[in-house]
Amino acid sequence: MSKLRRILAGACWATLWSGSLLNAEPPIPLTPQGQAEVTDLTQRLNQLQQRLERLEVENGQLKQSLFQSPSGKSSGVLPANAEMWNTNTDAACPPSCQCPACTAAKDGKGRWKTGWNHGIEWVSPDKAFKVHIGGRTQFDSVWYQAEAGALDGDSGVGSQDGVGFRRARLRADGTIYESIDYVMEWDFVNTVNSNPGVTGDAGATTENNIINVTAPTDLWFRFKDIPYLGNIMVGNMKEPIGFEHMTSSRYLNFMERSFNQDLFTGAFNNGFTPGIMAHNTYADEHGTWAVGLFKNTANIFAWNTGDGEGAATGRVTYLPLFDEECHQLIHVGISGSVRDPDQGRVRYRTRDMRQGNGSLATVFADTGLFTASEAYFAGAELVGVNGPLSFQAEWIGAWNTGAVQQDTTAVVPPFVIPGIPLGTVFVQNYYAEVHYFLTGESREYDKKSGAFGRVVPHRNARWKGGCYEPGAWQIAFRYDHADLNDNGVNGGQLNSYTFGVNWFLNPNMKVQANYALTERDRAANGVHGFGLRLAHDF
């Protein structure tokens, strides 16, 4: 800009002295002849100053317009005098890195489009803004039958049956100003003990003192297209660990995830943790990576206080095979987490199908509380799809260092005396499952999240007017093994066999039926569970 000022000033003075461009007026003498000429010269200088200011404004407009094509995008062409507008021009820098052009910011003005995208959605004409309203409901009925001695030492309501909403959520999500995504979702059927001493022993949890409360699940902002990083999320979110954990509860193969969810990826906080996370894809979206810092919470309300009590969690996935046309893929992934335990304590316990609500559900294995200095998680994933056939398998293990027995709430005798050092306590779980579509569909895979997506039937179920269409039918089987016994901690061992049938009426509704046989290491007989779910999401 300083060069521009010097050029324009020189041109003005040359014009002033020569008179050739000022309406052919005679040149001004070097020495003014009287007060009238001084006044006239002052007026001309003021006029020139005003013209110079107008030129500067026009120059600013030209600076923006000359770098853009008529469509508003960068033309890729620089004017010959571009160096006048770039005071930081480096002679060694090619034109492509000088005078970066910015398109005009999108403001979302105009007539928005309204439509259905698995929920009501509004989109601005420039696609810089989007609002989507959605939610989900999952209504469950669960029956248990326990053989003699099968539930000795358990907690919860034992073999009682239950009915209730597993999830009932509402959400709003979308995009603002093209580069910021958001999700705001709340679940209305979380439960808490409203009066721990109302019946039975102090702290007893029964249906007489359990109430539903609202709690946040996904509640975050994502800043997109960040240089080098890709995306940054801030808020309450899923930590990046585990394939089935990263798969939405709308798209699960069974009514409940494996024991991994209760033990590691969603223990006591619904699987959502407040924090900040960077994530992106690589290798032409054949892989994903994510790493974040989180507050290690043991409640469902997205808050925590304490000295430290943080977690650093990361996940990397890759697709060595991906053929979208033939519906074939192989997914591999690893994940890990370093955690400072909340209040210096850890507890690993697991349930299966929920009887009415999570607070009353039968607990099949439980280490009880013990203190630990650090907890280290590691996980491995293997997933495959070949047309209508799919499988997935995962393992997660946790090393708890500096462990000391704290109480005797473990459900497996013999109970350890409080205060006894335990060293490093290792617990683990792994599962393997296989699924097959009888109607020919394939599992959809989301390459941006490295997880399964929505199932879309070839033909939606219908029966009106004598015309029958089947929807999509899927059968599934899962083997699940948990080991919570190590180094003086006797949380128990579990083997679970789950058979499932899924009927997808359309992309937004399904009926699920599960039968599970759970074997506990302390009982010769098993526990039989049967569940039905009607699920809807939008």
Secondary-structure map with pairings?
Layout: H1 2-18, H2 35-65, E1 113-116, E2 120-123, E3 130-146, E4 162-176, E5 180-193, E6 210-226, E7 230-237, H3 243-246, H4 259-265, E8 273-282, E9 287-295, E10 310-323, E11 328-339, E12 345-346, E13 349-351, E14 363-366, E15 370-371, E16 374-386, E17 389-405, E18 421-437, E19 445-446, E20 451-452, E21 472-486, E22 489-506, E23 509-520, E24 527-537
Antiparallel strand pairs: 1-2, 2-3, 3-4, 3-24, 4-5, 5-6, 6-7, 7-8, 8-9, 9-10, 10-11, 11-16, 12-15, 13-14, 15-17, 16-17, 17-18, 18-21, 19-20, 21-22, 22-23, 23-24
Taken from the alpha-carbon principal axes, the silhouette is globular
What distance separates the N and C termini?
A: 55 Å
Helix content: 10-25%
Radius of gyration: 33 Å
**H/E series, N to C?**
HHEEEEEEEHHEEEEEEEEEEEEEEEEE
Enumerate the spans where pLDDT stays under 50 for 5 or more consecutive residues.
11-28, 74-91, 409-416
- Structure class: mainly beta
Main beta-sheet annotation: 16 strands, antiparallel, barrel
User: Spatial order of the strands in the main sheet?
Assistant: 3-4-5-6-7-8-9-10-11-16-17-18-21-22-23-24
Number of strands: 24
What is the strand content?
35-45%
Number of helix segments?
4
Overall pLDDT: 85
Explain what the structure shows.
This protein has 538 residues and is mainly beta. Helix content is 11%, strand content 45%. The strands form three sheets. It has a 16-stranded antiparallel β-barrel. Residues 11-28, 74-91 and 409-416 have low confidence and may be disordered.
